[in-house]
Write a structure and sequence with these properties.
- Belongs to the ETF alpha-subunit/FixB family.
- By secondary structure, the protein is α/β, with parallel strands linked by helices.
- Helices cover 26% and strands 24% of the residues.
- It has nine helices and 17 strands.
- Strands 7-11-6-1-4-5-12 form a seven-stranded parallel sheet, with helices on both faces.
- Strand 4, helix 2 (49-54) and strand 5 form a beta-alpha-beta unit.
- Helix 3 (73-87) crosses helix 4 (98-111) and helix 5 (222-230) runs parallel beside helix 9.
- The longest helix is centred in the first third of the chain and has 15 residues, at 73-87.
- Bound molecules: flavin-adenine dinucleotide.
- Residues 212-214, 238-241, 252, 254-257, 269-271, 273, 275-276, 279, 289-292, 295, 308-310 line the site of flavin-adenine dinucleotide.
C-alpha cells in the first residue's frame, strides 16, 4: 500500500549529511509509489532542495527561520511538529545522529507515537516493513515491525546505501515559516566552538583509524592521523585514550561515545573492551594492531597484526603511498 513518507534532512555546516540521503533511500523503498517529502531546516535550506530531489524527494519543505541555524531541542521540536502536522505522514525517518536522537523521542513522546531507534537495516518482506536494530550494546540484533499506526524510526548512519544521484528528478518546493512560541525557546546558541579539527566527519567516515591507550601520548596519534589522511578517513579513539588526555572526547567511539560503521576500521593499541566494541563492531572490515596476541580486539577483527603500532602504522602508510 502506498505511503506518504516524511524525512528530516540532517544538515551540518550548511551541507546535507549522508544520512539524509540514506533516509531518503528508506523512504523511497517503503513509500511504494507514495509521496516522499523531505524537510530541511536553517538558512541554507533552499540550497539543498536540488540534492534532495536528485536522491528521491518528491516534495521539499524548507523552514528557513534563523532560529534553526543551530540545533536546539526546543526550536527543532516546534518546527518538526508543525511540519508533521502539515504533512500528516504515514511514516517518518530521521538520522540516528545527535539531532535525530534528541528530537525524535521528544516528538514521539509528545505525539503519543512509538519509535524504533538506531535501525541498521530496513526491508520489505511479504508486504511487512521489517526494521533491524542492535540490542545489548551491539551483541545481538532484533527485528521489529509496526503493527498499526504511524511508523517512526531513526536510521543509523552508514548502514543503508543512498540512491544513486538522478539529476533528472525534480521536487516541488514549499517554504514554511514556522511560528515559534518564544516562551518555549529556552536555549539560544550564541557561539559554536569546535573542539575537534575540521575534516572528515567521524560518524560518517568510510575509513576510521582509531587509537587506544597504546598510543601512549598526544603525539602518538600523529602516525594514525597520517594514515587516516592518506585513506581519506577520520581518526577515532577509545575511552582509554580520551581518559588519558591523549585526545579529545569528541573522538571517543563506543557505548558512551560515537557509533561508527565505516567500510574499514583500523584499531591501534586498543584492547577491545565490550564498551568499545559497542561503537565499532558493525564496521565492514576491522583491522586490529596490538602487541598482545591475546587482546580481545582480535576476536572481532577480520585481519589482525600482532606488533608494535609505532612500527606497523608507519609501515602501512609507506606501503599504501605506493599504491
Ligand atoms: P587498554 O585496555 O589499556 O588497552 C590498551 C591496549 O594497547 C592493550 O591491549 C595493549 O596490548 C595495547 N598496546 C600497548 N602498547 C602498544 C603498542 N605500542 N603497539 C600496539 N599495541 C599496544 N571505552 C571505550 O572505548 N568507549 C566507550 O564508549 C566506553 N564506555 C564505557 C562506559 C562504561 C560505563 C564503562 C564502565 C567503561 C567504558 N569504556 C569505554 C571503557 C572500557 O571499559 C575500556 O576501559 C577502554 O575501552 C580501554 O581503552 P583501551 O583499549 O584504549 O585501553
Amino acid at each position: 500500500m502506498s505511503k506518504n513518507v516524511l524525512i528530516l534532512a540532517d544538515v551540518r555546516d550548511k551541507k546535507l549529511r549522508n544520512v539524509a540521503l540514506e533516509c531518503l533511500a528508506v523512504a523511497r523503498m517503503i513509500a511504494d509509489g507514495g509521496k516522499v517529502t523531505a524537510t530541511v531546516f536553517g538558512s541554507s535550506a533552499k540550497d539543498l532542495v536540488e540534492q534532495l530531489a536528485h536522491h528521491g524527494a518528491d516534495h521539499v519543505i524548507t523552514v528557513s527561520n534563523p532560529e534553526l541555524d543551530q540545533y536546539t531541542s526546543d526550536a527543532y521540536f516546534q518546527a518538526f511538529k508543525q511540519v508533521i502536522e502539515k504533512v500528516q505522514p504515514d511514516a517518518i525517518f530521521t538520522g540516528h545522529t545527535a539531532v535525530g536522537r534528541d528530537v525524535s523521542p521528544r516528538i514521539a513522546a509528545r505525539l503519543g507515537l512509538g519509535l524504533i531507534s538506531d535501525c541498521t537495516s530496513v526491508e520489505v518482506q511479504d508486504g511487512k516493513i521489517i526494521f533491524t536494530r542492535p540490542i545489548y550494546a551491539g551483541k545481538a540484533f532484533v527485528k521489529k515491525a509496526v503493527k498499526e499506526g504511524l511508523i517512526f524510526a531513526t536510521i543509523r548512519p552508514n548502514n543503508i546505501e543512498a540512491l544513486a544521484t538522478d539529476t533528472s528528478r525534480t521536487a516541488t518546493v514549499e517554504d514554511l515559516v514556522v511560528s515559534f512560541d518564544k516562551d518555549l525557546l529556552r536555549t539560544i546558541v550564541k557561539e559554536v566552538v569546535r573542539k575537534t579539527a575540521d575534516g572528515v566527519d567521524l560518524s560518517e567516515a568510510r575509513v576510521v583509524v582509531s587509537g587506544g591507550r597504546g598510543v601512549k601520548s598526544e603525539d602518538g596519534f600523529k602516525p594514525l592521523q597520517e594514515l587516516a589522511d592518506l585513506l581519506g578517513g577520520a581518526v577515532g579513539a577509545s575511552r582509554g585514550a580520551c581518559d588519558a588526555g591523549y585526545c579529545d572526547y569528541g573522538l571517543q567511539i563506543g557505548q558512551t561515545g560515537k557509533v561508527v560503521t565505516p567500510d574499514l576500521y583500523i584499531a591501534c593499541g586498543i584492547s577491545g573492551a565490550i564498551q568499545h566494541l559497542a561503537g565499532m563492531s558493525n564496521s565492514k572490515v576491522i583491522v586490529a594492531i596490538n602487541k598482545d596476541p591475546e587482546a580481545n580486539i582480535f576476536q572481532v577483527a577480520d585481519y589482525g597484526i600482532v606488533g608494535d603500532l609505532f612500527e606497523v602504522v608507519p609501515l602501512l602508510t609507506e606501503e599504501l603511498k605506493k599504491v
